[in-house]
Design goal:
single chain, alpha/beta, Rossmann fold, 2 domains, four-stranded antiparallel sheet, 7 helices, about 25% helix, globular
């Protein structure tokens, strides 16, 4: 094993080869975990501020102490962990399409995996979030037509920068309307984006939901030594 780089696993999936690797970032002298799909970077343990903010901002408008939450996209697990840190969360379902990502958490290759898989409130479901969103039975195979207080999504890079064509229709009004049917009254839909706020997409959300807004999340990028802004879109039924 190279002290500066190690590929922890690589497996084939329906949308390409996915790999988990650890490398030493010499500029700031830290180990970084990265997930890549082919040559494309999906996520990095170096940039997790907005993934955590997705959970915090998505749950902030909700009241009650028996919240049921759905997260689309497991990734490195930061959004899911932030959901479970919320005292009012009763249950969490995480929908992840790629079996290797689930496997990495169960095997403990990812630092947050043990905490997620051992929490009795958390259940990981393998499935295509976008396909399930467009069904009447919904996301929970054990409880058809189950509704949630919050649905938080972090899969594509943005509504315009997709991992593959599978999700394209989801971000159109009909797709968003189908998603809204899986929320309880006053429920919240939260969406992570790697880009700055897009007024066109916010308006599209507002055409489907009762209210919609975009919250920029700015943090310091230590590699470029400058601020970087991503976005959490929020909408409420």
């Amino acid at each position: 094993m190279d002290e500066l780089f190690e590929e922890l696993d690589c497996q084939s999936t329906s949308i390409g080869d996915i790999s988990l690797r650890r490398r030493r970032e010499l500029k700031i002298d830290v180990d970084v975990l990265e997930i890549k799909l082919g040559d494309e970077f999906l996520m990095s343990s170096l940039f997790t501020v907005s993934e955590i903010a997705l959970a915090q901002l998505g749950l902030e408008p909700l009241v009650g102490n028996q919240l049921d939450v759905l997260v689309g996209g497991l990734g490195l697990g930061y959004t899911a962990r932030a959901v479970l840190e919320h005292n009012d969360v009763r249950s969490l379902i995480v929908v992840e399409m790629l079996e290797p990502v689930i496997d990495w958490h169960k095997r403990g290759l990812l630092p947050l995996g043990v905490g997620l898989t051992s929490d009795p409130r958390c259940r990981i479901v393998q499935g295509d979030f976008f396909a399930l969103s467009n069904t009447s039975t919904g996301f929970d195979p054990n409880t058809p037509d189950r509704k949630f207080d919050a649905i938080l999504l972090d899969i594509d890079h943005s509504p315009e920068a997709l991992l593959d064509e599978r999700s394209e229709s989801f971000y159109r009004p009909d797709g968003l309307r189908a998603l809204s049917a899986h929320l309880r009254p006053n429920g919240v839909f939260g969406l992570w984006s790697n880009d700055k706020p897009d007024a066109t997409f916010t308006d599209r959300l507002a055409s489907v939901f009762t209210s919609a807004w975009a919250t920029p999340v700015t943090f310091h990028n230590p590699l470029q030594d400058r601020p970087f802004t991503q976005t959490v879109y929020l909408a409420r039924v």
